[in-house]
Design goal:
The complex is a heterodimer.
Chain A (H helix, E strand, L loop, with lengths): L1 E6 L2 E5 L12 E4 L4 E5 L3 H10 L4 E4 L19 H12 L3 E5 L6 H12 L3 E5 L2 H15 L4 E4 L2 E3 L3 E5 H11 L5 E4 L11 H5 L5 E6 L6 H11 L2 E4 L2 H4 L7 E8 L3 H20 L9 H11 L3 H17 L1 H13 L5 E4 L3 H11 L3 E2 L5 H13 L4 E4 L14 E4 L6 H9 L11 E8 L4 H8 L3 H4 L4
Parallel strand pairs in A: 1-5, 6-12, 6-13, 7-10, 7-11, 8-10, 11-12, 14-19, 15-17, 15-18, 16-17, 18-19
Antiparallel strand pairs in A: 1-2, 2-4, 3-4, 8-9
Helix pairs in contact in A: 2-3, 9-11, 10-11, 11-12
Chain B lengths: L8 E4 L2 E4 L7 H19 L4 H13 L4 H12 L2 E4 L6 H17 L20 E5 L4 H17 L2 E9 L3 H13 L3 E6 L4 E7 L12 H11 L4 E10 L2 E8 L17 H13 L3 E3 L6 E2 L5 E2 L3 E5 L5 E7 L4 H13 L5 E6 L6 H7 L10 E4 L5 H21 L1
Parallel strand pairs in B: 2-9, 14-15, 15-16
Antiparallel strand pairs in B: 1-2, 3-4, 5-7, 5-8, 6-7, 8-9, 10-13, 11-12, 13-14
Helix pairs in contact in B: 1-2, 1-3, 1-5, 2-3, 3-5, 5-7, 6-7
Classes of the chains: A alpha/beta, B alpha+beta.
């Protein structure tokens, strides 16, 4: 008889000399231990194959039982698009990805999935803010305090919320304790490290959630293998004005002041001359590392690197941009506003100048919660952030977004737009301002990040 | 540990070689000393993190070899503790200021900062509260080991050979492999030698960097052995590169190596055994026993019978070996053919009655186990050896 056990994120199959034909594609001989080994994520196919072929086996893998006492404590009436996503997921053997825009109620969909299965669930999230937010939602709907992994917490319970990073460290020990794996912002899952969170879990049921699941070919294949197909895809435009707030996107070209323009031009020239000299054109992902190496190695490198920092600082948060931020803030007095920057330095510069709360990874947990609570309640109408609010965090009242600076990433820009689209009573039409320093490298960065249908029809 | 940007290496013909710095060269010890002096001074003056970073940056920029300087700085930074700035309750100050500014914004007035830095508790403002100093030579050795370990972050599996006449040293290496949850395929090579290929359980299904840190953590235990070599395959920027290192690299582990010390009771035991044993001899070479399924046994002493030429191994269990003893008893229950006897400290199993109870489902093992206090006596060892020989003889006759 085949004995199947969970070991360090894998399955060991012992008690047999040769592997049955039905398992040939799922398990491998492991000469290190003299038995056979399979990926934990292939648990369900292995069991199904053995059952289908009438092969006797002893299953010592699962370390969980159904949660028959788990019920929703308040009625959820799903929106039609949520019901559509739930039905499609159930029809796909409770596996697959729901691609819904930010604010479309992905968390509610997950609550419905957990309530439907009534089995232990591990929820993966990318940030600590999302970790606490998910715990709050689970507590609200199930009257159940879930376990937490991440941000200093390490408590495993039948329903546990974990950051991807913490799950990666723990999955080899807990991969057999959950039947349902939910990957929030699942575009993070396929990276070479994070994918192990799903591959080392036996969970037969899986749900991926993302507003922006578009990935390259390799990552799409990994996501499909580990979570399932995209079972439901809904665009922002389909929900705008109903489930999501109506919105405008306003691009504001900002002219650098005379002094700044001169300093920018001088430093940009030094920087680009260095790049040309050493044949670096940022066409390959490794070019950034090459630039760092060259700037450390060659005599003119120090000057070039300093020039790079200076021109970037001016383009991202020069005086002209700060003046533009001031004008926008005065145009929307009392309205909930999030200011986004590309880096912490710019965020703190704005925070110091206008006496504003700044949320970065340096913000301690208690103050982070305090900032978000006061922002939600309206006590603090404005929050400045670099990247930590890019994804997922629920701030429904935010109606104004100001992108002071950012990367060329379409995903980042769509996620930032998503922060101001959540519906709230009496919320005015949302508006996302994008400040772009004129005649600088920011113009091309802006063009790159606006390559999404959410920006095509609503830009002014 | 060093970060990617600190690693120095050369690549030629598909091979990667870490660039070490000589711990003996006066210019290197002087360089190390400059950084150590900075950190000692910074700690004594309770500098802020930002000030220390600025000072260290200036020191790094003054060096020709920026990477090595930055690497040494990183290792010293790892030995430095910081605490939050405590002169002000910044969160309370911010709360007050933000509530005021919120009011102004709501009324269409632009607040202006600048008088007080209300973000004075950011990391740059943290104060040094501790620094564990180190000698320049030790820092340079640490640097070299960290360079080798740093390359191993790109490793998916590695193989090594190790040679030591001291079983305890090899046992430490095996312990490290187990501690870091790695799997190995072991082979004995020559006297006191072992070779193994190490990887993680999931490595069977394709390359993964998940175990790279675990593999890198094996290195300090490996370099503690008198003779060792390792080969690893690295993947850097889609290139497969081969790393080869051995004891000629003169890497020095920061793990304590006490293998040169032979306790007095062991010397005495060897002397008395030679006097009393008659037919039995202590075997100089103590090989490991591979019991399969990742169970490797490193006996403490091995004995060879002059009559039969057979060797039997003794493994000692002290008060800190409780779970290991249970595992070993379980192993002997399933594999009675293993030539192994067990000496157990009374601090672990108090009396023969307790031992008998422990072995109630395998009473035949009672003849292979005995209790001692602190260190086994020669007479009791000889008694068990004779019993085992009788048992072995009857087993042979029966079979």
């Amino acid at each position: 008889m085949i004995l199947i056990q969970f070991q360090s994120g894998t399955l060991t199959l012992s008690g047999i000399d040769t592997l049955p034909d039905c398992l040939q594609h799922l398990a491998k001989p492991d000469p290190r231990c003299g038995n056979f080994r399979a990926r934990a994520c292939d648990y369900a196919p292995i069991v199904l194959a053995l059952l289908a072929n009438g092969i006797k086996f002893c299953d010592q893998v699962r370390d969980y039982a159904p949660l028959t006492d788990l019920h929703l404590c308040m009625q959820i009436t799903p929106h039609p698009h949520q019901q559509q996503a739930l039905d499609a997921w159930k029809k796909n053997q409770c596996r697959g990805i729901a691609a819904l825009p930010t604010g479309a109620g992905k968390t509610i969909l997950a609550m419905l999935a957990i309530a439907h299965l009534q089995r232990p669930a591990l929820i993966l999230v990318p940030t600590i803010d999302l970790l606490t937010q998910w715990c709050g939602v689970i507590e609200k709907f199930f009257h159940y305090a879930p376990g937490m992994l991440g941000g200093g917490a390490r408590e495993i319970k039948p329903i546990t919320v974990s950051t991807y990073d913490s799950a990666l460290l723990n999955i080899e020990f807990i991969g057999n304790r959950f039947a349902l794996l939910i990957a929030d912002e699942c575009h993070h899952l396929p990276s070479p490290e994070n994918r192990l969170c799903a591959a080392m879990s036996i969970a037969p049921f899986r749900l991926g959630l993302s507003a922006t699941p578009e990935l390259n070919e390799e990552y799409s294949a990994v996501m499909k293998e580990l979570l399932g197909d995209v079972v439901c895809e809904i665009n922002i435009s389909e929900l705008t004005g109903t489930v999501l707030s109506s919105y405008d996107v306003v691009k504001i070209p900002v002219e650098l002041s005379g002094d700044e323009a001169a300093v920018y031009a001088r430093n940009r020239a030094v920087y680009t001359a260095f790049l040309r000299r050493w044949g670096i054109n940022f066409s390959h992902p490794s070019d950034w590392a090459d630039f760092l190496i060259a700037s450390a190695r060659y005599p003119s490198g120090k000057e070039a690197f300093q020039a790079f920092l200076t021109q970037r600082r001016i383009a991202r948060a020069g005086k002209a941009k700060l003046d533009a931020v001031a004008q926008i803030l005065l145009r929307h007095p009392g309205e909930s506003t999030i200011i986004f920057t590309a880096d912490n330095d710019a965020a703190y510069e704005i925070g110091r100048k206008f006496v504003l709360p700044v949320l970065t990874h340096h913000t301690k947990a208690a103050e982070r919660k305090d900032f978000l609570d006061r922002f939600r309640s309206g006590e603090y109408p404005i929050l400045v952030t670099s990247k930590v609010l890019n994804e997922g965090v629920d701030v429904p009242a935010a109606a104004v977004g100001i992108v002071v600076s950012g990367s060329g990433s379409v995903r980042e820009h769509v996620q930032r737009l998503g922060r101001i689209l959540r519906p709230a009573p009496d919320k005015p039409r949302a508006v996302l301002y994008e400040l772009v320093s004129a005649n600088t490298s920011e113009e091309s960065i802006s063009e790159r990040r606006r390559a999404h249908n959410a920006y095509r029809r609503r830009s002014c | 540990m060093l970060k990617k940007e600190h690693l120095k290496f050369r690549i030629a013909n598909g091979r990667i070689k870490p660039v070490f710095i000589s711990p003996e060269a006066p210019e290197n010890t002087a360089l190390a000393q400059r950084f150590i002096a900075l950190y000692e001074h910074a700690a004594a003056a309770a500098m802020r993190r930002g000030e220390l970073n600025d000072a260290a940056e200036a020191l790094i920029r003054a060096e020709k070899d920026l990477k090595s300087a930055a690497g040494l700085n990183k290792l010293l930074l790892d030995r430095t503790l910081f605490s939050a700035a405590l002169e002000c309750d910044y969160p309370a100050l911010r709360r007050k200021l933000f509530l005021d500014s919120a009011q102004k914004f709501t009324n269409g007035i632009l607040p202006a900062g600048g008088e007080v830095d209300f973000y004075g508790d950011l990391p740059d403002f943290e104060i040094i509260c501790g620094f564990t100093t180190i000698t320049p030579t030790a820092l340079l050795h640490r640097y070299n080991l960290a360079q080798a370990q740093g390359l191993m972050f790109f490793t998916e599996k590695l193989s090594f050979t190790a040679q030591s006449s001291d079983a305890a040293e090899l046992r430490k290496l095996l312990k490290a492999i187990k501690f870091f949850r790695l799997l190995a395929h072991f082979k004995a090579i020559g006297k006191g030698g072992i070779s193994a290929e190490i990887s993680g359980p999931f490595s069977l299904f394709g390359p993964t960097a998940k175990y790279a840190l675990n593999l890198a953590n094996i290195l300090p235990a490996l370099v503690n052995l008198p003779q060792w070599s390792l080969e690893a395959e690295l993947k850097i920027k889609d290139r497969i590169l081969h790393l080869k290192l051995d004891n000629k690299a003169a890497l020095v582990s920061h793990y304590r190596n006490l293998s040169g010390y032979i306790p007095e009771e062991i010397r005495l035991y060897h002397r008395l055994f030679a006097e009393k044993s008659g037919d039995w001899q202590i075997t100089g070479d103590t090989p490991f026993l591979d019991a399969g399924e990742q169970e490797i046994i490193f006996p403490d002493i091995s004995f060879t019978s002059g009559t039969t030429g057979k060797t039997i191994h003794l493994e000692l269990f002290h008060r800190w070996h409780a779970s290991l003893l249970d595992r070993r008893i379980d192993l002997l229950k399933h594999h009675p053919e293993l030539p192994l006897i067990l000496g157990i400290d009374r601090a672990l199993v108090a009396s023969p009655e307790v031992l008998a109870e422990k072995l109630s489902d395998a009473p035949h093992l009672l003849d292979r186990c005995w209790l001692f206090r602190d260190f086994p006596g020669v007479d009791s060892t000889l008694r068990v050896l004779k019993k085992w020989e009788c048992q072995n003889r009857s087993r042979t006759v029966n079979s």
